[in-house]
Amino acid sequence: MQTLLLQNTDQDIACAGEILRRGGLVAIPTETVYGLAANALDGAAVARIFVAKGRPQDNPLIVHISDISQWRPLVRDIPDSAMALAKAYWPGPLTIILPKSDIIPDEVSAGLDTVAVRFPSMRTTRRIIDAAGVPLAAPSANLSGSPSPTCARHTMDDMRGRIDAVLDGGDCNFGVESTVVTLATEVPRLLRPGAVTPEELRDVLGRLEIDEAVMGKLKEGVKAASPGMKYRHYSPKAEVTIVKSTLEAFCRFTEQVRDKSEVFALCFDGEQNTIPLSCVTYGREDDPLTQSHRLFTALRELDERGAKTVYARCPSTEGVGMAVYNRLLRAAGFHVVIL
Ligand code: AMP
Ligand code: MG
């Protein structure tokens, strides 16, 4: 299959809409990461997403809408708490899970009785949804397991020959996937951290539990509330270790690496001259939004530069930092050393 590269023009957005209406797959930009979209109400189209990504069948998809009025038909009911969240943070990088209605195909919910919905803020994303005329199921547009793509080139690298088209809308603003919160439990529960922080959710909801899969590895035999969180994920080919330490201790630690040829540091801006390894940077130490913007690009860059072993400086877990740490932890296969 030849994969078209579409541009952010009226004509190409109309073309993307046409492909999606016919049951095809188009990778689309959003403010979080590039998504691999199909008509969410067409089970056969959605099934093709799983094939193109090599995604495990038990990992459900997020449905994207371009107006809040499109939400009601997708869910059984919209409780006041959900509407309050939507009013506060939609359009934006927040996904809300509620019990699903009968029009959601099993392929979207992966057999669960809930559906995840997001109203993105990026104008181009909303124009594509409008052009398709249907809600779009769209997981991140990477091959399953690799870092999510945050630009059209990375999307093409993973999806060339596997889908109908990629629409180039430039670099993603946030660079990590949306915050996922479920309101289908007795107490609202954060399943995946993102740019909307736990503090911001608590401001609206009052109570919020943090799922144990967010900051650590699920114990053997525990069922994942968010199936996507149980996999090793976002991973470059290199073996990544998070090193929790000061910059000084990090430098002493990496100084001891004997053969430094394929060993890299994933570090903060400005640390390249201090660390005795080849370095790839992922934002400013004191600014988690620059880290989220850079992280997945940095992980792909490590592959492009042939890294075999990577030691990563540990981000703060405060605010948006929780999302950055959560992704890096999975990229590292939960491998953390504390100095
Ligand atoms: P992706 O869009 O590739 O980032 O993947 C979507 C994420 O949302 C995965 O981690 C899923 O496990 C999670 N998700 C989607 N729908 C649901 C749902 N109904 N219940 C729990 N988690 C969900
Ligand atoms: Mg994903």
Feature tags:
alpha/beta; DHBP synthase; Rossmann fold; 5-stranded parallel beta sheet; binds adenosine monophosphate; binds magnesium ion
Structure overview:
It is a single chain. By secondary structure, the protein is of the alpha/beta class. The protein folds into 2 domains: 4-214, DHBP synthase; 239-338, Rossmann fold (3-Layer(aba) Sandwich), CATH 3.40.50. The protein is built from 10 helices and 16 strands. The chain has helices spanning 10-21, 43-53, 80-89, 106-109, 123-132, 152-159, 198-205, 247-255, 288-304, 321-331, and strands at 4-6, 26-28, 35-39, 62-64, 94-99, 114-118, 136-137, 165-167, 179-182, 189-192, 209-210, 239-244, 263-267, 278-281, 309-313, 336-338. The strands form 2 sheets. Strands 1-8-2-3-7-4-6-5-9-10-11 form an 11-stranded mixed β-sheet, sandwiched between helices. Strands 14-13-15-12-16 form a 5-stranded parallel β-sheet, sandwiched between helices. Helix 7 links the parallel strand 10 and strand 11. Helix 1 crosses helix 5 (123-132) and helix 9 (288-304) packs parallel to helix 10 (321-331). It is globular. The model has no long low-confidence stretch (mean pLDDT 96). Adenosine monophosphate (AMP) is lined by residues 59-60, 62, 97, 109, 112, 114-116, 139-140, 177, 180, 191-192, 226-229.
